[in-house]
Amino acid sequence: MSLANWEVKFESKISEVASSADPAHDLLHFKRVVSLAKHLCERERGKPEIVIPAAWFHDLVIVPKNSPLRSQASRLSAAKAIEFLRSINYPDKYFDDIAHAIEGHSFSANIEVKTIEAKIVQDADRLDGLGAIGIARCFATSGLLQRAFYCPQDPFCKIRSPNDQQFTIDHFFIKLFKTAETLKTDSGIEEGQRRLKVMKSYLACLNLEIGPVQGLQSSKEWTWE
User: Fold this and answer.
1) If DSSP codes are grouped into helix, strand and coil, which group holds residue 148?
2) Residues 6 or more apart whose Cβ sits within 8 Å of residue 17
3) pTM of the full predicted structure?
4) Domains and CATH numbers, the chain
């Protein structure tokens, strides 16, 4: 069976999990990650038989961001993915590498990725948290968790420690900018830098809009560093 035919089964399965109630992890998120993974796989010469199912099922078990089980999500997803792949008779010679790629993609799991396929899947998922779509996903998650957009006294954490449990913009400093530094593949790093510029430009634009209200610096010459 061709990979394209397998993907029909993969998408059908993940459609059971992806929810429009969480825009950051809806079906479009999985499709974007798969698309990125395919692109990186081609450029980095990975094995698509491993990369593609791992990308589709990287979040097969979705655990809320504020759950104490969050760090276990990738391991739970890997186990569930292999169970499903076995049930549809996907070639088992790929199972170990698929499981490793799924387990290793998670930021919170902090697992060292050892194969090019795992690095590709990790980069693909992390890239979807950056750039214009990353900003959208960040605010979507913040809305679900009912967190304020920014701290009115110090929106950009100039004189305070960031707290993304309370303020959305703080998540840029706690995780998103650091995520760009964790990308593994040459192709992923290149795309990550482009997306990083988009996010910094957004913060500069945000400053122009909220600065007058908050009594902050607001100048066309102001840029984010």
Assistant:
1) strand
2) 59, 60, 61, 62
3) 0.88
4) 3-118 (1.10.3210.50), 131-214 (1.10.3210.50)
